[in-house]
Design a protein that fits this description.
alpha+beta, membrane, transmembrane, two-stranded antiparallel sheet, transmembrane helix
Length: 359
């Protein structure tokens, strides 16, 4: 008796039977899942609700052959990318403007001579009449920087020391260097400023304005080289430097100095009359850790009192010392203020200069 699996007539000659014919075809799970049609189940066929014995499957193409874990991971990646694109488009964009607290505000008070004319001093010893009790020293020796560079609550001793060194360089360049004082140099001062302030500095230099924000004399002490020359490269200095924290991320350094310059008219011979010009300059610097690492500063406040100068003299670009022999007080006696007079900014001030340079 033949094999029940074989036809009664036996296997056809020259062939291996139907099983052998399709034995190389393997319907694995991925092939079945990729099929576009699917036979209905027995319960679905008995229900009679289907008009066709098969239903068409949703085609996912190559995705249908991926394992479930891979599909889940792919879906998560797509969702994360979509979220990143969405928030990148909809988040508010910061304008390339100055950060809060990075814009300089400057105030200048003109000091007129009390009475009489602007006095001359001995060219060979122009500072002889200065009081020894005032503690004046030559140049940077009078800056009064802290000798002990102590750490603060959030800044190390090394960071404080580096910040003070940068402030010292700024002070030296901006009020002691002859190239800045009477030769028109500005780039060396600019190089020490935080990049966020350099645009404001450039506007102050190219288009100075008496608006508290674009006065060149707020950034540095300087005189018109067409009118004023230094009678001595020595500048007498007395003052102090203090360190504190504005907040945990900002080191605040405040400087307060009195400076005395010996000046003469530009272009005149060595024997030209010499007079003294006095400036009190109080500055506030803010430095974050980036500024400290880059050896740069942010000059936030600048308050300058300078004289002898006439009241109302335009000093946005240069300080304007009165020449020897000018009689004070000039430009009106300071003191009376009329609130109804809005011809000048409310912050502009004028006062009487006292002391050895004020007559």
């Amino acid at each position: 008796m033949g094999d029940p699996g074989e036809p009664p007539e036996g296997a056809p000659e020259g062939g291996s039977g139907s099983d052998d014919e399709y034995r190389s075809v393997v319907f694995d799970e991925s092939f079945v899942r990729a099929a576009r049609i699917q036979e209905l189940s027995a319960s679905e066929r008995l229900g009679g609700g289907a008009a066709h014995p098969v239903r068409r499957r949703m085609g996912l193409g190559l995705l249908s052959s991926l394992p479930r874990q891979a599909l889940t991971l792919l879906l998560l990646i797509v969702m994360a990318f979509g979220a990143a694109v969405y928030f990148g488009v909809t988040s508010p964009q910061r304008e390339p403007s100055l950060a809060a607290g990075s814009e300089l505000t400057a105030e200048l008070t003109a000091l007129v001579p009390a009475a009489g004319s602007v006095a001359t001093v001995e060219p060979a010893a122009p500072f002889a009449k200065l009081s020894a009790a005032a503690g004046y020293a030559d140049g940077s020796a009078g800056l009064g920087l802290p000798t002990a560079r102590a750490a603060t609550a959030h800044f190390s001793q090394a960071q404080v020391s580096e910040a003070l060194n940068t402030v010292q360089r700024y002070l030296t360049l901006s009020m002691l260097a002859p190239v800045v004082l009477v030769q028109g140099e500005t780039e060396s001062v600019r190089a020490l400023l935080d990049p966020a302030e350099q645009a404001q500095f450039d506007q102050s230099v190219t288009a100075p304005g008496d608006d508290q924000h674009h006065t060149v004399t707020g950034w540095m002490i300087r005189f018109d080289p067409q009118k004023i020359a230094l009678a001595s490269n020595t500048v007498k200095v007395a003052g102090s430097v203090k360190v504190s924290e504005a907040d945990p991320s900002t080191l605040e350094i405040t400087t307060d100095h009195t400076l005395v310059y010996a000046l003469r008219p530009a272009g005149n011979a060595t024997g030209a009359p010499v007079s003294l010009y006095e400036v009190r300059r109080e500055l506030r610097f803010d430095l974050d850790r980036t500024d400290i690492a880059a050896d740069q500063v942010r000059l936030v406040d600048s308050v300058v009192q300078a004289g002898p100068t006439a009241c109302g003299a335009g000093q946005a670009e240069y300080l304007q010392p009165l020449p020897v022999g000018a009689v004070g007080p000039l430009g009106g006696q300071p003191g009376a203020v009329d609130p109804a007079d809005r011809s000048h900014p409310a912050w502009q001030q004028c006062a009487v200069l006292a002391g050895p340079t004020g007559g």
